[in-house]
Specification:
mainly alpha, Serine Threonine Protein Phosphatase 5, Tetratricopeptide repeat, globular
């Protein structure tokens, strides 16, 4: 992580012309000196003399108190030296001077990520995306990133509106239709989700995630199981060892009553990924096969995992234990 961060910082170039260091012609001498220190800082930075570069950029800051470029460079030097608190202080100061500076928000994201503070990193990333979108509302990539961020936070209504804008601006965008389907399905609007995933597959028939999502949704609803089977076989031909796809095909077989096939695919998926949904499915298959003790062992093993509905799992365990005792 540290190597990646330093490599990224080595490539940043907050380079700007002399005019960026001030707005009044009366400060020409001061600005010339400030610019000279800035250039010297760039050279020291290039030759990896971090301490000297920090001194040079600090001189710029003293000579031009409004210089965002200098503060960004100072923060970058602090990050390379693992002095994260100092970097944050400089960047927060820069944010007050120029609240519209996207570079400030991005560097804050990097600092908080390096510190392992995901909550603050997410806050700054959200601020960055909102600022960027306000500056460039027609930029489709910014719109997509903002939609993805809202989706990850679970703000499905907001994500839905943003993905609809993506599709409106770029009607042939398979990703837009796929993710719109995802947020609709997350809201329990599965019939609407089906339409979006069908549209995705019209645009790109080999869109594996859409094949999987639509096929699995059919399995969950107990409809179009033969079509779902074809979809998942196609998805697996594109990504043979994908545990989500393996589980989906196994679950389709379970719904079709083909328990032996279901067990093969879901067991393989469980070996590739220790996921509570996959393991719950495997337990369901063993219970249906008349192996309640095996099902109980699996279900008990997932109770400590995140994202598990313990009440539902405990009911299944109790039912299986009663059956096993008969």
């Amino acid at each position: 992580m540290k190597l990646l961060l330093v490599t990224w910082l080595a490539g940043i170039s907050f380079f700007c012309p002399l005019a960026a260091f001030g707005r009044n012609a009366g400060y020409t001498d001061v600005l010339s000196k400030s610019y000279a220190f800035y250039l010297k800082g760039l050279m020291d930075d290039y030759y990896s003399t971090a301490g000297k570069a920090l001194d040079d950029y600090s001189h710029v800051e003293k000579l031009d108190s409004k210089s965002i470029s200098a503060r960004l460079r100072i923060a970058a030097e602090y990050i390379k030296m693992n002095k994260y608190q100092q970097a944050v202080a400089v960047l927060e100061e820069a944010k007050k001077i120029d609240p519209a500076s996207l570079d400030v928000y991005l560097l804050l994201v990097l600092v908080y990520t390096a510190q392992g503070d995901s909550q603050k990193a997410n806050t700054e990333y959200e601020a960055f995306l909102n600022k960027a979108y306000s500056l460039e509302p027609e930029n489709i990539k910014i719109l997509e990133y903002l939609a993805q961020f809202e989706c990850q936070k679970g703000n499905n209504k907001k994500a839905e509106l943003l993905y609809r804008k993506v599709i409106q601006k770029r009607p042939g965008d398979a990703d837009g239709y796929f993710w719109l389907g995802y947020v609709l399905e997350s809201q329990g609007r599965w019939k609407e989700a089906v339409k979006q995933w069908q549209e995705t597959l019209k645009i790109d028939p080999k869109y594996a995630d859409a094949l999987n999502s639509l096929g699995y949704l059919y399995a969950e609803e107990g409809v179009n199981l033969d079509e779902a089977e074809v979809m998942l076989k196609k998805a697996l031909s594109l990504s043979p060892d994908n545990p989500a796809y393996l589980d989906s095909l196994g679950w389709i077989y379970f719904k079709q009553g083909k328990l032996a096939k279901a067990e093969i695919f879901v067991r393989k998926a469980s070996k590739l990924l220790k996921d509570p949904v996959i393991l719950e499915h495997l337990g369901d298959i063993y219970f249906k096969m008349g192996r309640p003790a095996k099902a109980v062992d699996i279900w008990k093993g997932i109770l400590a995992l995140d994202g598990v509905d313990k009440g539902r799992i405990n009911k299944k365990i109790k039912k299986a234990e009663i059956k096993n005792a008969q």
